[in-house]
Backbone:
């Protein structure tokens, strides 16, 4: 089972996926606790702040996953924030994998020894706990990115989310009715909007568009493959459990010399499987989760580009409308005002969008660097401990 | 011969000796009485035995030769043999220390069974060379066997694989020091059949050959050159090699002329009868025997608890080995899956790296792709080792345990024969009594004759039963010892592959680390 220092390690390591969070003491958010009731996870969101906008300096509320989604969607829909990368919403808590495995384990209980079954059960419980911790952290990071964002941290709905001590479900329903359809449609046509011939005036955005579209596909693919790889690795680690247990059973039948070899080997594999398990989970955290997080972040950056492209399209059509109005000499002032508005909106979006995209690049590179280094170091550490376990077992077998 | 009194056989090792040593200065007969085969061709007359203290290895051989030359079921010849063999052992001019490298492929698959006895096997990888040298000093005799160079002969459905069987030896019973012959799979099966026919009934554990595989062979015949048929051929080659090594490391079987013929003769008559001996057929046979055993176990009045307990141990061991085999097979599959998933991941990271616009990160990602690619190969190799070393070890022993059960079965049969004879004798006696009472003197003589016939049969069968029991017991002990050594060697070999794999991992990640650190 995970020990406390390791837990803390994992905490900081996941947080390193998006760096520089929660450093501002004037506004700190964390999720110290979470409850799991069947499928529903209830997060305790704890805020500590010196900002005058809040009623109290420190408070906690209970929130569900759907509340986070509501918050994210309202931010996306807010036109004012069109020029910012809205932090990606946290994915739904998914306990499907460990639950399925637990089910299979229950079915296969009769075929295993008691020790084997206990070990497998412990492994699954650890896996379940790992999923749980991951989901807590991913929800936490979402809130922390908001709190450290110069503009988004001031959002009214964000404040409500943190402070409102009642259930948010009523508000959520209203929001869905208003925004549900529109948002979905936008996402659907987003790619078309970008790819279609909206003439790009700015080199920077042109390059970003190409880069982000391509990169998104690649990173999505890498995430899927990484997940498959780490899962296969976990399977191998679990197989070692069965191998060790069966060797144990076999050793009971054997004469003294062979009995000793088999017992030593069983012991070795019991230790090795723990190391392999850790390799698999470290790969999962440092690699798969890293890739997954930035995949979603890039999606958020793409959304920014979509919004900008839409604003550009609006601007261009307002230009055309103005020309037409001037020709017809009808409602020229209206058209002028409208065009001005679109122009301003577009330029504001472009300016803040550029800033966001550049800082996003930096963030991404830093996070990749940190995680790749940590992963390599962990792989080396684990391989070294495997080597020493193997070497001492080999020596022991040879000298007898 | 005059030297009888001086011929003190070397001290027997710790393995159980229930028979009295017949080599105690008995027969004076010529070795010519021996059934036609003169094993000692090319050798000088046995001379004065040196009184060198023999290393423990050699005595095991000779002492078991003593016993097991009951192969030819003539007690007296048994004795000559013992003496002669003992002398030769002491007097060997062929104390060949030089270890020639085996002609076998240097690839990993190929168990290094180190057994005490005249036969030692293909040299294991260099690491354990010091061990080998030690062994050499103990063993005066060597017999190395390698099965290599699988070659397809012929075309279409009549095609078959021919394997090169190379023997290197300094054993006096062979005319030459090296032999190279070509054998096909049915030849190996034929050898097994002959050995089994002759020796199983006496309680010997005759190593079973690898199983026939219709699917595997069909692929080969049809000419499919994919990785699964390559793997199949390699698997078969390695298991044929282990099979032969087990046969020759059995001191009694080594003496069988069929074994020598197999190793020496250029052309062997085609073993036609083995065509019927499919893998399934073989198993069916054994299963019937096993069923028979279980039926008989209930009836047999076991005078010796040892056999009952041993049989239970064997049954339990068989169950656990089967489970172990299935666990390893799952492991192999998962590792292969891991390997292919890693390869896919490597490709996808390479693609990501090429998209990445930050140069240093882009380079680091391509390096990561390369590392993962190398790791994929490691996983692939490890899966092979899981299979060829571990899985095959357990599969071999599952088959061997069947042979062990078979020897118990034969013991049962001899017991049954003895019991039946006793019953018949009893009936004959009753018959005689009846005739006496009915006063029929003419039939009485016949009855008396029959009684004496059956009396001697009873004695004979009782002796047979005791002899077979002793053989079985000795065989089982020998088997257990071999098994312990075999397991140890294979397990060490396997662990060494795991060790190497992890050492490589360290190298790869350590090379990658500076690349990751260089990201800016």
Residues:
């Amino acid at each position: 089972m995970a020990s406390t220092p390791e837990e803390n390690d994992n905490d900081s390591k996941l947080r390193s996926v998006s760096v520089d969070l929660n450093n501002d003491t004037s506004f700190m958010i964390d999720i110290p606790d979470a409850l799991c009731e069947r499928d529903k996870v209830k997060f305790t969101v704890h805020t500590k702040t010196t900002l005058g906008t809040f009623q109290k300096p420190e408070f906690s509320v209970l929130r569900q996953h759907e509340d986070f989604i509501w918050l994210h969607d309202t931010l996306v829909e807010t036109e004012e924030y069109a020029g910012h990368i809205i932090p990606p919403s946290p994915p739904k808590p998914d306990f499907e994998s460990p639950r399925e495995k637990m089910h299979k384990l229950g079915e296969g209980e009769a075929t295993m020894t008691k020790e084997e079954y206990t070990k497998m059960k412990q492994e699954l419980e650890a896996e379940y706990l790992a999923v749980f911790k991951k989901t807590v952290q991913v929800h936490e990071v979402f809130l922390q990115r908001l709190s450290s964002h110069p503009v988004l941290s001031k959002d009214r709905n964000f404040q409500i989310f943190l402070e409102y001590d009642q259930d948010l479900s009523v508000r959520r329903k209203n929001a869905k009715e208003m925004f549900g359809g529109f948002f979905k449609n936008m996402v659907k046509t987003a790619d078309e909007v970008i790819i279609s011939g909206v003439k790009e005036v700015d080199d920077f955005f042109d390059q970003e568009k190409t880069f982000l579209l391509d990169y998104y596909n690649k990173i999505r693919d890498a995430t899927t493959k990484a997940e498959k790889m780490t899962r296969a690795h976990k399977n191998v680690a679990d197989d070692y459990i069965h191998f060790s247990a069966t060797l144990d059973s076999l050793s009971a039948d054997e004469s003294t010399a062979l009995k000793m070899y088999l017992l030593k080997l069983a012991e070795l594999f019991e230790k090795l499987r723990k190391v392999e398990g850790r390799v698999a989970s470290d790969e999962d955290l440092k690699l798969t989760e890293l890739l997954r997080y930035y995949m979603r972040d890039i999606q958020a950056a793409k959304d920014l580009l979509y919004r900008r492209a839409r604003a550009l399209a609006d601007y261009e059509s307002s230009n055309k409308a103005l020309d037409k109005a001037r020709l017809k000499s009808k409602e020229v002032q209206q058209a002028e005002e409208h065009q001005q508005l679109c122009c301003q909106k577009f330029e504001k979006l472009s300016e803040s969008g550029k800033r966001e995209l550049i800082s996003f690049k930096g963030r991404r590179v830093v996070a990749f660097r940190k995680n790749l280094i940590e992963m390599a170091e962990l792989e080396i550490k684990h391989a070294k401990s495997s080597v020493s376990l193997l070497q001492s077992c080999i020596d022991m077998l040879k000298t007898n | 011969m005059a030297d009888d009194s001086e011929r003190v056989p070397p001290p027997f090792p710790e393995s159980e000796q229930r028979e009295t040593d017949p080599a105690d200065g008995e027969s004076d007969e010529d070795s010519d009485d021996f059934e036609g085969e003169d094993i000692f061709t090319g050798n000088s007359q046995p001379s004065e035995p040196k009184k060198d203290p023999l290393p423990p290895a050699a005595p095991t051989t000779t002492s078991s030769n003593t016993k097991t030359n009951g192969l030819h079921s003539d007690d007296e010849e048994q004795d000559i043999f013992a003496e002669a063999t003992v002398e030769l052992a002491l007097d060997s001019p062929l104390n060949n220390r030089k270890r020639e490298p085996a002609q076998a492929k240097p690839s990993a698959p190929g168990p290094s069974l180190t057994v005490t006895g005249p036969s030692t096997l293909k040299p294991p990888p260099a690491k354990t060379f010091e061990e080998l040298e030690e062994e050499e000093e103990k063993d005066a005799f060597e017999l190395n066997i390698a099965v290599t160079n699988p070659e397809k002969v012929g075309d279409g459905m009549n095609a078959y694989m021919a394997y090169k069987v190379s023997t290197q030896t300094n054993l006096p019973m062979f005319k030459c020091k090296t032999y190279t012959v070509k054998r096909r799979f049915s030849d190996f099966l034929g050898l097994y059949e002959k050995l089994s026919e002759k020796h199983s009934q006496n309680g010997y554990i005759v190593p079973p050959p690898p199983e026939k595989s219709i699917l595997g062979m069909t692929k080969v015949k049809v000419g499919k050159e994919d990785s699964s048929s390559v793997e199949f051929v390699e698997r078969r080659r390695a298991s044929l090699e282990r099979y032969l090594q087990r046969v020759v490391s059995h001191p009694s079987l080594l003496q069988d002329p069929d074994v020598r013929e197999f190793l020496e003769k250029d052309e062997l008559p085609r073993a036609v009868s083995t065509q019927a001996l499919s893998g399934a057929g073989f198993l069916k046979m054994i299963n019937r025997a096993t069923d028979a055993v279980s039926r008989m176990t209930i009836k047999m009045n076991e005078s010796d608890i040892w056999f009952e307990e041993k049989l239970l141990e064997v049954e339990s061991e068989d169950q656990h080995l089967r489970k172990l085999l299935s666990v390893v097979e799952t492991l192999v599959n998962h590792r292969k899956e891991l390997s292919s998933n890693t390869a896919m991941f490597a490709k996808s990271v390479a693609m990501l790296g090429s998209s990445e616009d930050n140069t240093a990160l882009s380079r680091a990602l391509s390096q990561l792709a390369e590392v993962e690619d190398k790791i994929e190969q490691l996983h692939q190799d490890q899966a092979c080792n899981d299979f060829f070393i571990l899985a095959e070890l357990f599969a071999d022993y599952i088959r061997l345990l069947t042979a062990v059960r078979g020897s118990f079965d034969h013991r049962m049969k001899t017991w049954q024969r003895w019991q039946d004879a006793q019953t018949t004798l009893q009936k004959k006696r009753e018959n005689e009594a009846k005739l006496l009472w009915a006063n029929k003197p003419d039939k009485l003589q016949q009855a008396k004759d029959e009684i004496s016939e059956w009396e001697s049969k009873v004695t004979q069968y009782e002796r047979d039963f005791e002899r077979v029991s002793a053989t079985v017991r000795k065989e089982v002990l020998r088997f257990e010892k071999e098994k312990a050594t075999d397991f140890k060697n294979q397990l060490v070999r396997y662990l060494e592959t795991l060790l190497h794999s992890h050492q490589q991992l360290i190298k790869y990640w350590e090379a990658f680390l500076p690349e990751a650190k260089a990201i800016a």
Observations:
- DSSP finds nine helices and three strands in chain A.
- The beta strands of chain A are 27-37, 40-49, 58-64.
